[in-house]
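Incident review: delayed structure delivery

Summary: a single-chain prediction request sat in the queue longer than the usual turnaround. Root cause was a stuck worker, restarted by the on-call engineer. No data loss occurred. The affected request and its eventual output are reproduced below so the record is complete for anyone auditing the incident later.

Affected input:
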Amino acid sequence: METEEQSLQSEQKLEKTVLLVEDNRPIASLLVAAISRATTCQILHAVDGFTALQMVTRTEPHLLVLDYQLPDTNGVDLYKQIHEMKEQESIPTIFISSDLPPLSIKNSNIVRMNKPFTIRAFLVKVNALLSNPIPELHFAASEQEKLPLLPK
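Output delivered after worker restart:
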């Protein structure tokens, strides 16, 4: 049974929230595991824009990680919808895709990452946008083989 002190420590540990919107489940699982391992953030995962919009209305994410090609919308349109919401205008965003077009959005809190990319490069950007120092990560040889992400 969790004590009041442990509960408070758990709440403090998960002080920031990352919303990952990625419909490719293997890539999403890998990114969730990487963020969990390298940060103390709570991670929410949505597979489409509709679900992501519902999650944003219930939580206030500190970082968005958006795939460009989603089943019901594209990442740029989803970004615009989220940033039009009150108090969501300044959420930093990482766009990930194998075919990301040039973005017409002018915002210094947007980072583009073209697939394939390494988990290390991804985590550096996540931590920079969350203003967290990135911890020194050590991967076993078997884990290093999984790091480069393949395009959809």
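Verification: Residues 2-12, 133-152 have pLDDT under 50 and may be disordered.
Action items: add queue-age alerting; document worker restart procedure.
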